[in-house]
Structure formats: structure tokens, C-alpha cells
Q: What sequence folds into this?
């Protein structure tokens, strides 16, 4: 019998704890914790993400500073804003909502965020520190997955883990976190030969592919832990993950649903990173 890992419930519990920590920080230091959110343009999905991040800030007592710039804003103007936020003591975390409009050099803009305020954990410095298993700000989605393992008491040491997807924001940091937790990790991608065979050898499977119901029951070992990061639409337009949940679940010891699994953890970990960044400063 499988156990569902309830991301919504865990996210709620974590936000309650973060709020207590944020309140404690404010009392001790007499200072606020500030998160700057920069949105360039009117992409509807980005607008929703930014709204949700601001709402989460309100929930945990973090002060948000939203900067809405026109789609046509010049590179120099965006750079100037990030540089000013970088040295602003009110601001503990800087988040630039991606994707940026095509005329902007995203890499150059993101490089202006000091690693101590890089609450997305995307900077080369934070990723390098993660590789070296040193204190850093970890990318929110894979860090949320680690919290799920922790909350369920799922041991990782000595386990075979397969991560499918090698993006800089999910797959690669996920593989690194699992390695740091002493799992033996195989990082798979679109050119991987024998994906099914690799998945079948895994005690833990993390799917971060972006293909609806791509991971099927015949790819999963009996008793495996299956984490579904994917957020896709199925043939009926319904939100679904990368895992064929209905058929895979019976083979699992633990599985995350979509929606209500990894998704709610991501913004929660952003709040956690912002608190951490303030505490470390
Ligand atoms: P991405 O940058 O598009 O990366 C997808 C990865 O999947 C790539 O490494 C790609 O391999 C690999 N892949 C594609 N087709 C494959 C195949 N047939 N076999 C094996 N590997 C294959 O996506 P991402 O940003 O990491 O996101 C992945 C999914 O997670 C998406 O559905 C996204 O919406 C979701 N997501 C969810 C959250 C959340 O909060 N829940 C956060 C972020 C992302 P190559 O490198 O070889 O191309």
C-alpha cells in the first residue's frame, strides 16, 4: 500500500514554522525581512507566480517589494535596479521572475544578484557551494523535495536514486542534494540510453521532465519512492505530472500527487531561503 506525500499539508506546516522564525527575528533584531520581486513585462503566468509569492510573503510576515517594469524596459534600467537592490539593507532576497523578455540579457542581469541575496539559488556561486556541500541558498523546488523526504523519514543514504531531467533549476541541484545525502545518483536526460532499465533499478525516482504521464508503471520497481516535479496538462487540459499516477501509485511505497505535491513546497522554500538570508546577514 502506497503512502501519499501531502505537499499542501507539509507546506502549511512549514509556513507556520517560518512565520514563527520570522517573528522571532523581527523581535530580536528590530528589523523587517524584505524580499524584492522584479517582474518585467505582462506575461500572465509570471503575473500569477509573482502574485502568489507576494501572498506567501504576507502569510509569513516577510515584507515584499514588487517592481513591475514595462516589457520594453532597457537592459541598463533593469541592471541599475538590481544593483541598487543588491546594496539595499532592507532587502534580504532578490527574485527576478523568469523568463525575461527576449531583448534582455538574463544571464547578465542574474549575475548582478549577490549570492547571499540569491533566494532562487540559481547563481553560479550558490550552485558551486551546493556541489561542494557548503552552506548556500538551494534552489527552491529540489530543496522542497528534500524536505518531503525528511518529513516522511525516508532514508536516502546508500539508496539508488534516479533523477530524470538535468535543468539547472531542478534536475542538477536535485542530483547534487541527493548525492550530498549519500544516495547513489544517476542523472538522466533525453539522450539517456535504457531509461526504463535505469528507473527499474531505482529506490527513489524524481521526475522533472515536463512530459505528461511519461513515467509509466513498467518503469518502476516495487516499493520505490516516486517524486513527481512535473507540471503539465493532459489531453483534457487537466493539470498532471510527469508520472502516470493512477497506474504507478500501486507499485510505490511513497508517491507525490500533482497537484498538491511538490508544487506547494516551492514558494514555501522561497520564504525559507529569504528568512535564511536575513538570518545569515
Ligand atoms: P526543462 O528545463 O525543460 O528540463 C527538462 C529535462 O527533461 C531536460 O533535462 C530534458 O533532457 C529532460 N527530458 C526531456 N525529454 C526527455 C525524455 N524523453 N527522456 C528523458 N529526459 C527527458 O524543465 P524544468 O524547468 O526542469 O522543469 C521540469 C518539469 O518540472 C516541468 O513540467 C516544469 O513545469 C516542472 N516544474 C515544477 C516546479 C514546481 O514547483 N512543481 C518547479 C519547476 C519546474 P535534455 O537536457 O537532454 O533536453
A:
Amino acid at each position: 500500500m502506497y503512502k501519499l506525500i501531502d505537499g499542501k499539508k507539509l507546506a502549511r506546516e512549514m509556513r507556520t514554522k517560518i512565520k514563527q522564525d520570522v517573528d522571532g527575528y523581527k523581535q530580536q533584531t528590530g528589523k523587517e525581512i524584505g524580499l524584492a520581486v522584479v517582474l518585467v513585462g505582462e506575461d500572465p503566468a509570471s503575473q500569477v507566480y509573482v502574485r502568489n509569492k507576494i501572498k506567501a510573503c504576507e502569510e509569513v510576515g516577510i515584507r515584499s517589494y514588487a517592481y513591475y517594469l514595462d516589457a520594453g524596459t532597457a537592459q541598463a534600467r533593469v541592471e541599475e535596479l538590481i544593483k541598487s537592490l543588491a546594496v539595499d539593507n532592507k532587502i534580504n532576497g532578490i527574485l527576478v521572475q523568469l523568463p525575461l523578455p527576449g531583448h534582455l540579457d538574463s544571464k547578465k542581469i542574474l549575475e548582478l544578484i549577490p549570492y547571499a541575496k540569491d533566494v532562487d539559488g540559481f547563481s553560479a556561486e550558490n550552485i558551486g557551494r551546493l556541489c561542494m556541500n557548503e552552506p548556500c541558498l538551494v534552489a527552491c523546488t529540489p530543496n522542497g523535495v528534500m524536505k518531503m523526504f525528511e518529513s516522511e523519514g525516508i532514508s536516502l543514504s546508500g539508496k539508488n536514486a534516479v533523477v530524470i531531467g538535468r535543468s539547472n533549476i531542478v534536475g542538477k541541484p536535485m542530483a547534487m542534494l541527493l548525492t550530498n545525502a549519500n544516495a547513489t545518483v544517476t542523472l538522466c536526460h533525453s539522450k539517456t540510453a535504457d531509461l526504463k532499465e535505469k528507473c527499474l533499478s531505482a529506490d527513489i525516482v524524481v521526475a522533472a521532465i515536463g512530459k505528461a504521464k511519461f513515467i509509466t508503471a513498467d518503469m518502476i520497481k516495487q516499493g520505490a519512492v516516486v517524486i513527481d516535479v512535473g507540471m503539465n496538462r493532459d489531453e483534457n487540459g487537466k493539470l498532471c505530472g510527469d508520472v502516470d499516477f493512477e497506474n504507478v501509485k500501486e507499485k510505490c511505497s511513497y508517491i507525490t500527487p500533482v497537484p498538491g505535491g511538490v508544487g506547494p513546497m516551492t514558494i514555501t522554500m522561497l520564504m525559507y531561503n529569504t528568512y535564511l538570508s536575513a538570518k545569515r546577514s
Notes: The chain has a mean pLDDT of 98. Residues 7-29 form the longest helix (23 residues). The chain has ten helices and eleven strands. Residues 7 and 223 are 20 Å apart (CA to CA).
